[in-house]
Q: What sequence folds into this?
């Protein structure tokens, strides 16, 4: 009771303060749904930090309007919970934008809501290609597995690798990765000798290593969701002598995301990945981005791909507000950013008008030690990569 | 043939790791009749202490291991005094489950707050890095070390529980606490010592198994099913039963994943169901040791 009362009073006070402000000024609210606690809590933290960095750099106002972020915690993939939280944001908090969404099912669950309420939804992460097909109000500033895998598979084929094996976690994104790899690699003359789907909850990877070894492949394409399984996989790869046997290790950059690198240790050295962002990306803008994190939060250890996903997502939201001149109409707002191009800490970005997903440079990186810290060092860039998976899956 | 050999070696190696991280639970569950769901949390605490000792304090691996086991035991002894003592005995099963799962959540949140949600590692000494050749099959040196450590633990526990005065008193205290107390056995002290043994073994397992089950705050919840499976199949309180169960499950799981990876954990749980169907009390029925 007292809490409701206090909120009501606060609301009243806030309302008065607003009324006293300059004419026409309003607060535009953005609801962010992401994991802020639990095993994936580090994701929500990186979202929030990136948002705060963006607001520190670009101010909290667009025109006369103040942009306010409201955070909702969704600690694990849970579509119904995602829908409930998003609905609460729309109905109760009256948000003009939805944003965040780390897991694919959570992002998919809000499609009917954003269509009914006519609200744009800016996805900071969820990487399954099919998501943006489900509603014209989705915009995505992260990456997809197809986007990362196609250039990697082409690169592998160009390196003269003839026989490769894919080993992916047995769930949506893993299967996307496997399909993207197999299609592209075989198109360029390679052979995929075995496709291994590993249970998500595997602890011991020795049997898969034995299978990779027995397949006679020269290289392995691996995808696992970031976390303990990835660590165990990379370790097993080294420990069972596959690396010593000269088998090359490739995968999308989720494998070697920055917060996990210290734990991977030297086991990660030399793993080649393709990804849209490396913390070690050499540009003035990225250096400033990383430095601002250090300045505001004391450390830049949490800066990784989810940080730029959120940072660029906020940029798109600011642009939509600007384009609407303070009035937000969901469908028009999305329309107004189609084809928008800008420079991000990760490089040049363009929102593809068709898929509403960012076309971006994908980098080929190798894990190396930089000033005693393991980093993904960029070796090669493949500019203007679209989402190859859009409208491909049935 | 080579494949069979490979599966056998990998399976035994995985099984031994399962054994070493589950045997502590077998001690508390079987000998003290406490469903200690916080076992995983204790293992995790041990792992984190070792990680901190090795990385921040710069201790060598062996020293970090000893420090981790000692500190975990010291840190959990007050818990025995304050909490566990109240829930001993099979009449308190619901209280045991509620208390220990609550304790697990507290430890998870505490570790998350203190060390953050990222993965932690325990750096291995050079001696344990690399591979050992076993005929056509190479296994990681660290795993060979864990197998050896598991064998030593197995024999040591057997000796302690079957061949020492402590073991005799403990078995007496478990079978009939009132009678044992009447004969002058100080059951409270015995229970305290056994609890310490259980948490010490948990910490040992947490440190040695960290290469396979990486340390992160949700370790405590993520792997508890695995530990319970091994103890249930082995028969609570039976040291040899735990070892047999861990090896059987390790080999079945490895073979299944190698031959038909897309079936996932199917073989592990199918084996679990079949074994418990045939031997509802586990391989070695819950005798005291």
A:
């Amino acid at each position: 009771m007292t809490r409701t009362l206090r909120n009501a009073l606060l609301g009243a006070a806030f309302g008065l303060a607003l009324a006293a402000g300059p004419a026409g000024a309003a607060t535009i609210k953005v609801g962010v749904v992401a994991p802020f606690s639990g095993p994936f809590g580090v994701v929500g933290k990186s979202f929030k930090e990136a948002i705060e960095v963006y607001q520190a750099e670009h101010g909290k106002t667009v025109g006369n309007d103040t942009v306010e972020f409201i955070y909702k915690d969704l600690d694990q993939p849970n579509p119904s919970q995602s829908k409930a939280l998003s609905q609460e944001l729309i109905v109760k908090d009256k948000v003009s934008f939805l944003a965040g969404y780390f897991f694919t099912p959570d992002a998919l669950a809000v499609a009917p809501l954003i269509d009914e309420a006519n609200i744009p939804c800016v996805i900071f992460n969820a990487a399954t290609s099919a998501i943006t097909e489900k509603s014209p109000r989705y915009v995505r500033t992260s990456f997809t597995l197809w986007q990362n895998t196609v250039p990697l598979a082409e690169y592998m084929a160009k390196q003269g690798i003839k026989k490769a094996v894919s080993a992916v976690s047995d769930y949506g994104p893993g299967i996307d990765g496997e399909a993207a790899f197999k299609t592209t690699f075989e198109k360029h003359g390679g052979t995929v000798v075995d496709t291994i789907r590993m249970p998500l909850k595997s602890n011991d990877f020795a049997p898969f290593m034995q299978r990779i070894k027995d397949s006679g492949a020269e290289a392995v394409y691996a995808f696992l969701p970031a976390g303990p399984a990835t660590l165990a996989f990379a370790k097993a790869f080294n420990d069972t002598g596959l690396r010593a046997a000269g088998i090359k290790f490739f995968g999308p950059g989720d494998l070697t995301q920055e917060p996990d690198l210290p734990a991977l240790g030297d086991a990660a050295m030399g793993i080649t990945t393709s990804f849209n962002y490396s913390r070690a990306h050499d540009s003035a803008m990225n250096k400033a981005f990383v430095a601002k994190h250090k300045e505001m939060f004391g450390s830049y250890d949490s800066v990784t791909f989810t940080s730029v996903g959120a940072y660029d997502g906020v940029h798109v939201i600011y642009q939509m507000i600007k384009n609407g001149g303070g009035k937000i109409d969901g469908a028009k707002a999305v329309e107004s950013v189609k084809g928008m191009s800008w420079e991000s800490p990760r490089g040049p970005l363009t929102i593809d008008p068709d898929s509403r997903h960012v076309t971006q440079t994908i980098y080929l990186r190798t894990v190396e030690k930089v000033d005693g810290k393991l980093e993904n060092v960029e070796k090669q860039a493949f500019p203007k990569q679209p989402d190859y998976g859009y409208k491909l899956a049935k | 043939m080579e494949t069979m050999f490979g599966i056998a070696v990998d399976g035994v190696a995985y099984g031994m790791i399962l054994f070493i991280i589950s045997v502590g639970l077998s001690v508390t569950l079987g000998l003290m009749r406490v469903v200690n769901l916080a076992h995983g949390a204790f293992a995790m605490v041990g792992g984190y202490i070792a990680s901190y000792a090795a990385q921040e304090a710069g201790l060598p691996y062996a020293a970090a291991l000893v420090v981790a086991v000692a500190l975990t035991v010291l840190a959990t002894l007050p818990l025995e005094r304050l909490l566990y003592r109240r829930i001993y005995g099979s009449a308190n099963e619901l209280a045991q489950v509620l208390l220990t799962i609550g304790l697990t959540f507290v430890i998870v949140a505490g570790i998350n707050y203190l060390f953050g949600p990222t993965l932690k590692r325990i750096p291995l000494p050079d001696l344990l890095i690399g591979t050992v050749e076993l005929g056509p099959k190479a296994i990681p040196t660290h795993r060979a070390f864990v197998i050896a450590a598991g064998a030593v633990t197995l024999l040591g526990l057997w000796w302690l529980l079957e061949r020492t005065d402590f073991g005799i008193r403990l078995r007496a205290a478990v079978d009939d606490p009132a009678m044992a107390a009447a004969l002058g056995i100080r059951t409270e002290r015995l229970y305290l010592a056994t609890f310490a043994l259980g948490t010490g073994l948990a910490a040992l397992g947490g440190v040695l198994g960290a290469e396979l089950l990486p340390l992160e705050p949700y370790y405590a919840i993520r792997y508890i099913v695995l530990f319970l499976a091994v103890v249930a199949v082995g028969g609570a309180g039976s040291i040899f039963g735990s070892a047999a169960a861990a090896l059987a499950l390790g080999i079945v799981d490895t073979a299944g994943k190698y031959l038909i990876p897309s079936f996932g954990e199917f073989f592990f749980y199918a084996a679990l169901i079949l074994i418990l169907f045939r031997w509802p009390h586990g391989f070695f029925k819950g005798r005291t040791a």
Q: What stands out?
A: The longest strand of chain A covers residues 358-370. Chain A has two domains: 26-143+283-356, 146-275+362-385.
